[in-house]
Amino acid sequence: MDNSVLYEKFSDYLVNVKKASSNTLSSYLRDIRQFGEYLDSHEEVGYADADEDVLGNYIAWLRNAGKSVATVSRNIASLKCFYAYLVSQRLANANPTGKLVPDKTTQKLPQILTSKEVELLLEQPECTDLKGYRDKAMLELLYATGIRVSELISLNISDVNLNGGVVRCVSHDKERFIPMYPAAIKALSEYIEFVRPQMIAHDDEQSLFVNVSGERMSRQGFWKIIKSYQAKAHIEKDITPHTLRHSFAAHLLENGADLRSIQEMLGHADISSTQVYSQLVKKQLKEVYNKAHPRA
């Protein structure tokens, strides 16, 4: 079967069956498309005919091209998913990825902000205009709940329960309710009651957060917002929307929250994804000890 047909079938599977996130979808399809281009130029075989040697040559080609360990590992994951699908649908006779093993990597701990840096960042939006109130509510909500930026911009007005002090978050068909601290509830209340009605383009708009055109905020739009406040606060760390998510989790852990509760709030399917914050907190404690102890 033609490569383009197999590619389209795999794309349809990722979207409609696997329900892959937008990031996973784009990464897997990009990797498989690149692999197809490699086959055309180096091996002259199609997806269904590639064997273990061909895949081994491809991974070696990626490494020789200077691709990072993370990039090579992601390509291997993409190929394993692709060929598992082809075999399950009898579009390939055998799975040639069995001998592909990702390189071992040293887990890079996420960067977080200190409590003082968080306070400084949250102080930056000036509640003197519509945009300031909106930005204040977005930043407070992000740090209060630790939700992903994709989840933040996907929120609808109906997902917020101000009286209950919780926000409803739906991701990958899974629903979770996350509490908010009083300052976040206050900022969100002011935005919803006084600001949002003036910003939405249409009365039937469902999006919680909208841009200056009155339509749903985009990832790129919020990324620019958070970068502008980083610069305004003169914080040297590279702040992304995910930095506040990491900071939320680490600060909860530092103050006595258990991993299972943090896992549930973050929406992690596996506790191992949450355990990285334990390593982060231990690393920070060690750094504080080495700086502060007179005999360290």
Describe this structure in words.
The protein is mostly helical and 296 residues long. It folds into two domains: 3-88, DNA polymerase, domain 1; 115-292, Orthogonal Bundle (hpI Integrase, Chain A). 59% of the residues lie in helices and 5% in strands. The protein has twelve helices and three strands; from the N terminus they run αααααααβββααααα. The protein has helices at 3-16, 22-43, 52-64, 69-88, 115-122, 130-145, 149-154, 182-199, 219-233, 241-254, 259-266, 271-292, and strands spanning 160-161, 166-171, 174-179. The protein has a three-stranded antiparallel beta sheet with strand order 1-2-3, with no helix packed on it. A hairpin with a 2-residue loop joins strand 2 and strand 3. The longest helix is centred in the N-terminal third of the chain and has 22 residues, at 22-43. The chain is globular.
Distance between the termini: 66 Å
CATH superfamily of the largest domain, by name, is Intergrase catalytic core
Query: What is the fold-level CATH name, i.e. the topology of the largest domain?
Result: hpI Integrase, Chain A
Strand tally: 3
CATH class type of the largest domain: Mainly Alpha
Strand content: under 5%
Strand order of the largest sheet: 1-2-3
Determine the structural class based on helices, strands and strand pairing: mainly alpha
Gyration radius from CA atoms, angstroms = 23 Å
Mean pLDDT: 90
Question: What is the N-to-C order of secondary-structure elements (H for helix, E for strand)?
Answer: HHHHHHHEEEHHHHH
* Main beta sheet strand tally, sense and closure: 3 strands, antiparallel
How would you sum up the global shape? globular
